[in-house]
């Protein structure tokens, strides 16, 4: 009987505890709100000297068109100049043996021939 009374007395104590989670404060949110409240923006007058006033760009000058005499003089100078040739450099890709050269007609006949396929074992 004593044991039953001890159990009955213990049950109300066990049920008295709350199963609801303890409300926790969000420390990051609290810190953010604290810093947000403490922020004091600078006055707008301090930024007045940081900007420049806008001015439209000046109009471009029109190009000069040479007259016919100036153009004729430039063409004569160009015709009188001697072209400078680069030093001849022959590479192996540019050298073609004349005995192995194939004409266009021979090449077309070669292309028209049927292809011989070797049988694979």
Automatic annotation (TrEMBL):
It holds the Pfam family ATP_sub_h. Residues 42-56 have a biased composition (Low complexity). Coiled coil: none annotated. InterPro entries: ATP_synth_F0_suH. Residues 42-65 are annotated as: Disordered. GO terms for molecular function: proton-transporting ATP synthase activity, rotational mechanism. This is ATP synthase complex subunit H. The lineage of its organism: Eukaryota, Fungi, Dikarya, Basidiomycota, Pucciniomycotina.
């Amino acid at each position: 009987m004593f044991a039953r009374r001890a159990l009955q007395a213990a049950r109300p104590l066990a049920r008295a505890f709350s199963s609801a989670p303890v409300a926790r404060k969000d420390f990051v949110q609290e810190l953010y709100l604290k810093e947000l409240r403490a922020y004091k923006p600078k006055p707008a007058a301090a930024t007045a000297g940081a900007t420049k006033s806008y001015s439209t760009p000046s109009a471009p000058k029109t190009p000069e068109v040479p007259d016919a005499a100036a153009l004729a003089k430039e063409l004569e100078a160009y015709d009188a100049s001697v072209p400078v040739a680069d030093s001849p450099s022959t590479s192996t890709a540019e050298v073609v043996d004349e005995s192995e050269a194939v004409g266009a007609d021979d090449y077309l006949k070669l292309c028209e021939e049927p292809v011989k396929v070797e049988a694979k074992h």
